[in-house]
Batch of 4 targets.
Target 1
Amino acid sequence: MEKKSKLLTIGQFAALHGINKKTLMWYDEIGLFKPAATADNGYRCYSYHQSPVLETILLLRELDVSLTEIQEFMKNRSAENMKRLLDERIADLDAQIMHLNAVRKTLHNHCQDMDTLLSMDLSEISIVEKKERHLVTVEIDQDISFEKEVELITAETTRYGLGRLHDASYGSMLPVSSLLEGNFDNYTRLFIEIPFFEIPASSSGGESGLYVQPAGSYIRAFHKGSWDKLPARYQEIIAYARTHGLNPYGFSFEKGINETVIDRIEDYIVQIEIPVR
């Protein structure tokens, strides 16, 4: 009990709480946290009883609560007001964690693309196994311009709270039924993978712009250069599927994998993936 009533110098109290004594001086000047007593020589003195109050201020500062909000809280300290502040910061932290998880997944996807670039054989057609992937889709038609596609993708990434276009993986979808009919220009959707967005199972058919890309076996191939030569590549893919007794279904998913490391459109590489049974 005797130790609790002991007064500490500003340096001792600051060291006790791991802060600079100038912080205590500033808090005193703005009326946020006053010393327990002021000696005749003007030195500030603090009590152990003040530690919980200071730690509360330091916690709120660490949570990026503004000084104005902290001052208001200190004037009206209550469990209700404290819970409100903490609930707000928990919501902020949850949003930050969600964003960081999204960024991590996006970086992982970019790393996978770079691994593919470093090891790929442009002439190869292969079978890969893919996990289920959740997509947001936007309907388009054959007359849409590239500029309009970028605008649509940007709008969707904004809608789902992504900070930048590079936070999402995106591309084009071409119905397999069109490919089998020899129509290689009938792009009907753009897709955007929202890294942290979970789509209900009931939306797997693509309702309301939501689509679940199925898990399973996919034909994977690549095309480099001009888009007008893509039909020839698709003819090779279809021939490969027939030769190996594979039945393509659903959509062909196209995405660029080297946009971040090229300067010329002639070097652009499209990755093509088509689910097969």
Target 2
Amino acid sequence: MKITNLKKFLTILVVFLLNCQLFNFAYAFSDAKRFEFKTDWRGATIHYDAMPLEARQTLELILKGGPFRHRRDGTVFHNRERILPDNPRGFYREYTVTTPGATNRGSRRIIVGGKNMIFYYTSDHYRSFAKIVR
């Protein structure tokens, strides 16, 4: 490996590690640590009819098995915020709810839990959840 390539590699590595440390520092002081660990659901609920049209459409797609627009739809939701009931890794899956006018995935999601398909809706990117009542 040439010296210039090695310098570039080391510079990229140092920048990457610094960004990782900044992320950890920011997380330590974020709202995520204020959420209390819960073993059962005592949070808010939202009725299916009260959800935005896009959320109802996403829920219907989930029940049909797709097709989904975003490649991250159906991936494991890790419940790092510990707002939802504690369950084994892989219990929860997340799906994007389209946000009109957004140029990215937006902040709205539906989280599905387990084989019984317990549904939760978040409009604020995991800061709060409401269990969907149908």
Target 3
Amino acid sequence: MTLKADLFFSYRSPYSYLAIGRYRAMAAEFDLEIALRPVWPIAIRDPDLLFTGNPAAPRYILMDSMRVAEMHKIPYRWPRPDPVVQNLMTREIAAEQPIIHRLVRLGQAASRRGKGLEFAYQVSHIIFSGEVDGWNEGDHLAQASARADLDLAELDAEAISDAEALDAEVAANQDALEAAGHWGVPTLVFDGEPFFGQDRIDLVQWRMEQKGLVKRGG
């Protein structure tokens, strides 16, 4: 029996990026379907909450994400440009957010087609891997979409024409995440149980094996 899980994911979260490839590999190896459910980054969803944390947190997150990437041999650098328009010195969030709004709507449109996981993997790679500057310019997103067997022009048209409905679906994703017992990303929810963080993937697999996880073709 195919097991099913939901992966709550942010296109600005370095830890979401560090998890997505391993969850993608798990879904390829095992009889498992992982539905990708994008949420808004906390900087967009609740900037007041973002600013109430310890001021040392951004420095720690960057240091920690870099060493996690090094340990797992995942190419990584902070995005250029940042998907969220923000002054990192003052932490002020710009009123206009064209990049992240487009990106999350594209991701939700991909999820509508059952290809959210692959789209998130391909797109987050060009955002965080450091292989390209200006990942949102030229044909980088189009090529990433094509690798996920999706057409960027089609997704963009839907992101514009159906923006309100897509935003409602993204808000519902956040509600579902919180109803499952967590608020952050990446969180995988399996059989009603949330597993938060890129360091819980082995624990996820252990739990799934208890519930009958088997390799494809096995």
Target 4
Amino acid sequence: MKSKNWGWLLAGLLLGCPVSRAQEAAGSQAAVLSADTADYVEEVFGMSIDMVYVAGGTFEMGATPEQGSDAYADETPVHTVTLDAYYIGRYEITQAQWVVVMGRDVIQQRDARDTSYTLHGVGAQYPAYYISWDEAQRFCEKLSAMTGKKYRLPTEAEWEYAARGGRHKDGTKYSGSNEISEVAWVARNSDGVTHPVGQKKPNGLGLYDMSGNVWEWCQDKYCADYYSDSPSQNPQGPEDGSFRVKRGGSWRYLANSGRVSRRYSNFPDTKRDVVGLRVVREL
């Protein structure tokens, strides 16, 4: 701390500025930097969403060596991707958050064409589910309007980079561990239900449930061979496609589904008890 203070004192003297102004400039710049790169909590209508800063960086996307023989063809080829910085939710969007923004609870979210759909965990801190990709889009639009900030679903590349720990580069098969039960609720340990968010071990970025609990919608359209010609800088997914990407696995699926490179997809109007969302905010 002293070296920084002396640095600004010297800068003030060399530039002919009063020391107080140099120190004020230092504080101002630090405040701007902190505001741009610090984690924060979005507060809206009595509801809060915990957001984590993800520094931009470069990573290898796809079936990297730790994924082993479990990887599928659509996870290849492994390719280098560079992303700009962004924010991502520390947790999956909860049922309480969904109600505040959308005005509907998980019971109402069930497909109106079939009210016999089973509930698998109900409560404020449980992840929202029975969410279609189309509805996830509307959630992001409404949240953006409420806050004046740009919220959206993560791109597939943003999701995988965050699941791998961003610049922390966890290097693990699942998000934060090579042992699925440490970080995820999947078929082997979920008892057939979702669980409140944040109960398992986080990954290197401090993100919870990137593996397991519920699948998470991504912004991208799905194409099995997209990795063959994906742009290296901030890829947005293919221009065409009937399906939308979802990532992370769920409480009903096997451990394989929770791998950081595992890809899956559904039609955008699909509503299932194993699919929810996590949001990203653009800087």
